C-alpha cells in the first residue's frame, strides 16, 4: 500500500494523534515485532512480515488457473488450426482465437508476475530502526532506499483502514509548514479495535487494544529506555542479516491464529498451511535488507551492553553480551499482565494454552 503524499493532515488524523511524550494507559506489547534491541536502538519488522507468503500463494494459484489454463486452451486452438485445411474458415477461426487467447494470457501473466514481485524477488522484510541516542527513526523503504527522520518530528497517529476495518499506527513526515504530509510509514502491528478503543476521545483502553499497546512499546523504549520494555521480549525475529528457516517461517504464520477461538482456528488452519508452504519461497527469492554504512555507524552497540539482545536461529531471545546481562540481572521475565485479561504468550511462534487471544488478522496485506 502506498500512502498519499503532498496533502494536508486531516482533522481525523489530528484527533487520533499519538504524542511521543504522552504515556498511554495501556500495557506495552511487542507483538513478535522485535528483530534486535539494545541501549542504542530498537529494530522491528514491517507490518507485512506476519503474513508474508500470502501474496506468493495467491500469485501461484492465479498463474496455475489463468496462465496455465489459458495457455493450454491457446495451444489447443493452435493445434485445431493446424489440423484444419489452411484455406478453410475453421482454420482462420481457430488461429484468430488462439492468438487472442495468447495475448490475454500474456497480459494476465505480466500482471500476476508484477503482483508476485511485491513480495517475492524483493526484500525478506523492511526493517524500522529506532535509535534512542540520536533520536532518529530509520525506515527501510520498499525500493531499498532509507528514510531517516528525527523521532520528535514525526506526526504519529492512529489510522483506520476502512476496507479491512483495521487500525495501524502511521508516522507522517511533514513539510516545514507542519501541515503537509511529505511521506508516511507504518509501525509493525495492525489489527481490529473495539468500538470503545476506536473512539478518539478514549483514555481508558481495553486489554485487547494491541495497536496502541505496540505503539506504547516503541514509545516507552524511545522515551524511557530498554529497561522499560526489555523483560517482556521473549523472541526476536531471526532475520537480522539472514533469512529465517523453513521451520520458523511456518511457526510465524501460525502465530497469527494461535489465540483464535477453536472454530476460527480450524477455519484458518488450511489457509495458514498453504501460506506456510509459500513463505519460504518468498524468503528464499528475496534479498536480505542491509542498512547503509553511515546508519550502522551511528547505531553501534556499546561493548557489554546488558540490554543487547537478538534472536538465535529458532527465534529465541539471546543476549549479545551474556556475562554483562547476567551480572545486571537482565533477561526475559514475562509479558506484562493486563486486567481483565492477560497478554498473549508465544512459544516458538505458537501461543501457549491459557494465554489471552490476540487480535486475528486473516487477510493478506501488500507492500504495494
Overall 3D shape: elongated
Q: H/E series, N to C?
A: EHEEEHHEEEEEEHHHHEEHEE
Task: Report the span from N to C terminus.
Answer: 4 Å
Rg, alpha carbons: 24 Å
The poorly predicted ranges are: 338-368
Structural class, by secondary structure, is: alpha+beta
> Largest sheet, described in full?
7 strands, antiparallel
Helix content: 25-40%
How many helical elements? 8
Q: What kind of assembly state do the chains in view correspond to?
A: single chain
Integer average pLDDT = 89
Question: How many strand elements?
Answer: 14
In total, how many domains does the architecture comprise? 2
Percent strand: 15-25%
Structural notes for this entry:
The chain has 368 residues and is of the alpha+beta class. The protein folds into two domains: 7-53 and 120-351, no CATH class; 56-116. It contains eight helices and 14 strands. The longest helix is centred in the first third of the chain and has 30 residues, at 54-83. The N and C termini lie close together (4 Å). Residues 338-368 have low confidence and may be disordered.
